[in-house]
């Protein structure tokens, strides 16, 4: 979520008033804003997307709730010591959190372990351990519409009789100390991005958020006029018309068997009825195609922790496979591929398959990704139910990612096309009229220059590095992962360095290359990549032959509040994943909206950015998905590229020989070995095209006016990438609710009689 103060002031239309009031108290609002901690309750794009979606849902007047876990410790703080990443605990609640309100009156029990008893009256899950879920509510204000939605985060609490109700007469002190075991569930965020780690505590977290949330939703449904009761039992027929639940990846997939358990075991609905309601309630968004990221929980673990849910999953699977067998008799291979249970050394539950079978809609997050989902990853399922599969291209909220972080540019745009674009970003197309307006071109360039100077001062203050604000700011910020190919950027840096040294007199367009992002603590290769970047920076930044032509900076502890500083100051945005690996990306959209040009592959939303702006207004290079597939078919041989490209050979040899690590020449052996022998992401295959494309970038940068005109064309084409547009599509195609642009009257104005606060029936 990042910080909340400035976003709240902007959405309430109070920023200027607050700035002035604080100034009159002799304080500086910006200094005050810098004191607030980031709420870092997610890993990368997935968590930030949810935050943008909350802002858009409130702005569109949807009655929507964001549910998650109130981690005591969020994503770790990253320190760089001697070029290595070191993790520190993110104690973000140390000074309290003024935006949250604990709601003990809505506390709910969540059950674990135990056993299942079957009788004539149905299944009973008994002898369980209970953990209490305490909700904390954070307001989510819409933009200037007096709507405030709720983000409800659950915190784990031990019941007061925890470990004291059983035969444990003896050790009262130990029993109280053991309360920590239950409360550990919401202690810390697992810091893996795009990687599955099958740990029991993680599964507990996933079920904890799901079980608490579903009870909360059902309580609200029963309290509404829709949860009509026939004598005693609630009638749930209208449930899917009143409730839509969107599963953000497979992490909350246990919601599907949990809702079935509630309907069948507790509410006593017949299975078929329960299943129909469940399917119509859930929709699933897939966020990655990397096989190592797909959740596959061991059956033994689920059986121990959630025995009843395993039985329900088996029943869902049995009915699912019976259906497929009836359509494709004797096709055992198809049954194996489509089963929710994977046989092998350890039997596992494929959570993506569970989500597809248990949902009425499945979507990818960019056109190209949704195609890959349909034709490759889940092709059997798409063949069965093609109408179930959709695309919803990701977006970003223009409130945080333009108004808040780049007020200079936001104001400049408003002067030209009015202020309405903030709620309807498609209006940015009106800027096309000003592409040849010399004054506008100069003003856009001036705003960018001011942002660069401001960021340069920040870097000087925080990192004691002096950088040249007239150099091209070449920025690569995102989680560190092999598929995102920070290594390819690194090879380009070394190539530029070698060119400067080979011919110091030759014209060189000065660059400041900024790379930032966190590596999962257990991801050895990602940590080596950080060390390599810092080792290269050490050499480059201290070579007198290079001077101010090339500077390399590793940005420590990349997070939302730092993104808000670096993105408005960026000239060149690096989006260079191997084609077919980045589901969408959203940083790419933030840079586009803030006046950076993109160098990128035809991957994720880059494809649609090129479609919107015209391919000639992005620096597109490298293999397309088809080329990658073809190269896989032939067999990728890294040695070929190394032998054929002298500059690549030189750069790799320098890494290999210890040129960047003289004290330990073998330091980067693992990296070099990976690049030659098991590089799934084919860095060498795109190196030549990348370097050539970077030459084109430098050439254009020399012509400031032509560069800025291309920037304006990009901003004018960024309208599609508002999360408002994304949410309207979810609302229309999946949730079946109507966004409303009704502005609720403020509390100090009398309301018209009978005016309903929520004009839409369904709550998402």
TrEMBL record:
Cross-referenced Pfam families: Phosphorylase (PF00343)
InterPro entries: Glycg_phsphrylas, Glyco_trans_35, Pyridoxal_P_attach_site
SUPFAM superfamilies cross-referenced by the UniProt entry: UDP-Glycosyltransferase/glycogen phosphorylase
Keyword Calcium: no
Record keywords: Allosteric enzyme, Carbohydrate metabolism, Glycogen metabolism, Glycosyltransferase, Phosphoprotein, Pyridoxal phosphate, Transferase
Enzyme class, UniProt record, top EC level: transferase
Cofactor(s) of this protein: pyridoxal 5'-phosphate
Biological role stated in the UniProt entry: Allosteric enzyme that catalyzes the rate-limiting step in glycogen catabolism, the phosphorolytic cleavage of glycogen to produce glucose-1-phosphate, and plays a central role in maintaining cellular and organismal glucose homeostasis.
Designated name of the protein: Alpha-1,4 glucan phosphorylase
Organism the protein comes from: Sitta europaea
């Amino acid at each position: 979520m990042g910080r909340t103060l400035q976003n709240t002031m902007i959405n309430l239309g109070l920023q200027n008033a607050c700035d002035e009031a604080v100034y009159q108290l002799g304080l500086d609002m910006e200094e005050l804003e810098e004191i607030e901690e980031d709420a870092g309750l997610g890993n990368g794009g997935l968590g930030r997307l949810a935050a943008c979606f909350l802002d858009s849902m409130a702005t569109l007047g949807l009655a929507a709730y964001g549910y998650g876990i109130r981690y005591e410790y969020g994503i770790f703080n990253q320190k760089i010591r001697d070029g290595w990443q070191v993790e520190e605990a993110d104690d973000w609640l140390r000074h309290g959190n003024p935006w949250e309100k604990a709601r003990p009156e809505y506390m709910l029990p969540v059950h674990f372990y135990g056993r299942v008893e079957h009788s004539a009256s149905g299944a009973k899950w008994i002898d369980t351990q209970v953990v209490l879920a305490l909700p904390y509510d954070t307001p989510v204000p819409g933009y200037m519409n007096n709507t405030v939605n709720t983000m409800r985060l659950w915190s784990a609490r031990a019941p007061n009789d925890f470990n004291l109700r059983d035969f444990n007469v003896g050790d009262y002190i130990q029993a109280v100390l053991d309360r920590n075991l239950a409360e550990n569930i919401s202690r810390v965020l697992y810091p893996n991005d795009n990687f599955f780690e099958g740990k029991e505590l993680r599964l507990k977290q996933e079920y904890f958020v799901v079980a608490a949330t579903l009870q909360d939703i059902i309580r609200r449904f029963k309290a509404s006029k829709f949860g009509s009761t026939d004598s005693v039992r609630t009638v749930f027929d209208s449930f899917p018309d009143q409730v839509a639940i969107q599963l953000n990846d497979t992490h909350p997939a246990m919601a599907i068997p949990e809702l079935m358990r509630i309907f069948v075991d507790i509410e006593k609905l017949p299975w078929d009825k329960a299943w129909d309601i469940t399917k119509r309630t859930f929709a699933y968004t897939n966020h990655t195609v990397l096989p190592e990221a797909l959740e596959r929980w061991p059956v033994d673990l689920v059986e121990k922790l959630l025995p009843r849910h395993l039985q329900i999953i088996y029943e869902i699977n049995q009915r699912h496979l019976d259906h497929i067998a009836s359509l494709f008799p004797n096709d055992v291979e198809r049954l194996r591929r489509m089963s929710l249970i994977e046989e092998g050394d350890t039997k596992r539950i494929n959570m993506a398959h569970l989500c597809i079978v248990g949902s009425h809609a499945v979507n990818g997050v960019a056109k190209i990704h949704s195609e890959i989902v349909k034709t490759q990853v889940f092709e059997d399922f798409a063949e069965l139910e093609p109408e179930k599969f959709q695309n919803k291209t990701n977006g970003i909220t223009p409130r945080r990612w333009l108004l808040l972080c780049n007020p200079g540019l936001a104001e400049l745009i408003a002067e030209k096309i009015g202020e309405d674009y903030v709620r309807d970003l498609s209006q940015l197309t009106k800027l096309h009229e000003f592409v040849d307006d010399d004054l506008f071109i100069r003003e856009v360039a001036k705003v960018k220059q001011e942002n660069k100077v401001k960021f340069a001062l920040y870097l000087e203050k925080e990192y004691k590095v002096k950088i040249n604000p007239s150099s091209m700011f070449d920025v690569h910020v995102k989680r560190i992962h092999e598929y995102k190919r920070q290594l390819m950027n690194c090879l380009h840096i070394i190539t530029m360095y070698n060119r400067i040294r080979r011919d110091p007199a030759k014209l060189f367009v000065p660059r400041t290359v900024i790379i930032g992002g966190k590596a999962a603590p257990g991801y050895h290769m990602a940590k080596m990549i950080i060390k390599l970047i810092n080792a290269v920076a050490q050499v480059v930044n201290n070579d007198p032959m290079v001077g101010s032509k090339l500077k390399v900076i590793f940005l420590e502890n990349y997070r939302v509040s730092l993104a808000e500083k670096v993105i408005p100051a960026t000239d060149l945005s690096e989006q260079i994943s191997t084609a077919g690996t980045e589901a969408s990306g959203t940083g790419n959209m933030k840079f586009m909206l803030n006046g950076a040009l993109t160098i990128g592959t035809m991957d994720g939303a880059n494809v649609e950015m090129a479609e919107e702006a015209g391919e000639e207004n992005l620096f597109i290079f490298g293999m397309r998905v088809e080329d990658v597939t073809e190269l896989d078919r032939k067999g990728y041989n890294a040695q070929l590229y190394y032998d054929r490209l002298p500059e690549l050979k030189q750069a790799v040899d320098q890494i290999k020989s210890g040129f960047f690590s003289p004290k330990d020449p073998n330091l980067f052996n693992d990296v070099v070995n990976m690049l030659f022998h098991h590089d799934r992401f084919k860095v060498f295959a795109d190196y030549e095209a990348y370097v050539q494309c970077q030459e084109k970038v430098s050439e254009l940068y020399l012509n400031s006016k032509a560069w800025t005109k291309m920037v304006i064309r990009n901003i004018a084409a960024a309208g599609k990438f508002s999360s408002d547009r994304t949410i309207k599509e979810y609302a229309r195609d999946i949730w079946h609710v109507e966004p409303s642009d009704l502005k609720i009257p403020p509390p100090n104005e009398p309301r018209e009689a009978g005016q309903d606060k929520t004009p839409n029936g369904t709550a998402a």
